[in-house]
Amino acid sequence: MQRDFFTATKGGLIVSCQALEHEPLHSPFIMSRMAYAAVSGGACGIRANSVVDILEIQKAVQVPMIGIIKKVYKDSEVYITPTMVEVDALVGTGADVISMDATNRLRPGGVTISDFFKDVRKKYNSQLFMADCATYEEGCLAEELGFDIVGTTLSGYTKETRGNKLPDIPLVERLCRDLKIPVIAEGGIWCPEVLARLFEIKGLHAAVVGAAITRPNEITRKFVNALKREGLENENPDN
Question: Is the whole-model pTM more than 0.90?
Answer without folding.
Answer: yes
